[in-house]
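sorry for the late reply, my laptop died twice this morning and i had to redo everyting from scratch. anyway the thing you sent over, i finally got around to it. pasting the sequence first so we're on the same page, its 438 residues, then the predicted structure underneath. double check i copied it right bc i was rushing
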Amino acid sequence: MLVQARTRGPSRLEDSQLYLSGNLLRIILANIQFSQNRLVRFHTLLSGFYVRISTNLKEFPRLEQICYQGDVKTLDQLTVNQVTVQETKLKEFCNRVWTRLGVPEKDARVTTDVLVLADLRGVESHGVARLPRYYTDLKNGWTKPTDQSKVIKETKATALIDGGQSLGQVVGRRGMELAIKKAKETAIGIVSVRNSHHYGIAGYYSLMALEHDLIGVSMTNAAPLVVPTFGRTAVLGTNPISLTAPASKEKPFVLDMATSVVPRGKLEVYDRLKKKMPLGWAVDATGKGTSDPHTVLEALSKRLGGGILPLGGEGEEHSGHKGYGLALMVDVLCGVLSGSATGLGVDVDKTKPNVGHFFMAFDPAAFRPLDDFKRDMDRLSQELKNSPKAQGQNRIYVHGEKSYARMEKHRREGVPLGTAVVESLKQVATELDLPLSL
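ok and here's the structure:
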């Protein structure tokens, strides 16, 4: 490995050039103090990677962007000191954890599948990094190891499920399976769930519908982290929405999004790096925008006020009220409809989180021939991707394409895990006296 660098000060790293082989690309950015006008870009060379750190804003007008083999990522998405783990090994370990805690093998596999799929698709915040949380909940008896969920009320097209404080992934899969069953029988199935737990990525459940050529919808409410427009206290969760639709030759449409500007995890990354976050992500206890992630996280943990902003940001100028409306819509469908907790009551009592979910599946063939629907999905996708590109851009993506590409890459090359995540898994393994070979 050859490193070449020029410095313009005794302790500042600027305009540095590093040449590394692909296998040796392990850069500890946490130890480099970047000011807000400094950028990192990765460029592929024949022999490896070219890394440039620059303060020239004319050269790099967008702050904190990383180009890694053509895929633009924000600074906080760059994983440093990674350990790459094969999918099968990761699943084997997770399954052993659940079964050691009394979870039946079938339910253990479901829980593991949800976590690992998140990592495969690049949603690291909801991947195996969440395992210690679920482990703690099971160990303390806050989550039931065996499925206690039951159908409370049912019609031909709808159902209400009480999760019985079981694993959210297990309850969620049961809810979506029931919605799919009803959709295949009546063209539509809607299932509302109460008394559940955190269920992982919303997209896992909507993706299930694609296996049956159905359109799938999945939503969940969550612990209060998001302030309403013009408010100064977090009342709503990041409340994700996922919708999938089948296509023919193109990749299926897979929307999986939070209704907040950013998830809590992004604030935590900036806090760990002692960096200021962009204005427009969160507000302080007075309801004013702040760039200090530590202040926001501290206030949220102590319920002192402040929180993350809804999609669109602060106020109405950039349509923050619309993101607020989407978050509220999710709470209506997941919370009010099911009778679970809502707003300030969601997942605040670890002994009874009472999270609510909403699942829907419906058959496009009930409206028009399936082949016609899928053909037109292809056409719409191609129209978007073939439309004129903005200056400096060479591709337009349709939702889901990037995640499918990541999944193929990670299944082929292994799942990248940060060292902090690996250490947390090792701690669980030690406590349970389980072997961990990653």
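The CA atoms of residues 144 and 166 lie 5 Å apart.
thats about all i looked at so far, will dig more tmrw
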